[in-house]
Amino acid sequence: MIDFDNKSVFKLKQDSDFAEKVSDFLLDDESIIDSYKSMRDGVVFTNKRIIAVNVQGITGSKKDFTTLPYKNIVAYSVETSGTLDLDSELEIYFSALGKVRFEFTGKTSMSEISKTISSYLL
Asked: Coiled-coil region(s) at which residues (predicted)?
């Protein structure tokens, strides 16, 4: 499992091709909503969960896939980009896991991410 406490913050940019990395792990009734990629790591939002992918090693052939089910979210916070600070942040609080934080580039639609998470929580 990804150590979200000690791992540097994911800095993510929308990348629809990154979703292919998790296709083998999806359930039959699960669909991809959106995917984001940093240098090597990434996050995929599905209709059931968030999948964080940590690419490891020199070749990148070893990967850690951490499933973060929407049903375990107890709260979340969205910080949008500003005039000088172009990055946005998403903090999600999971029961028994604690806080998970993702940082996105300025062009990311944080309102869409918020709507996605809310639609499965509320």
From this structure: none
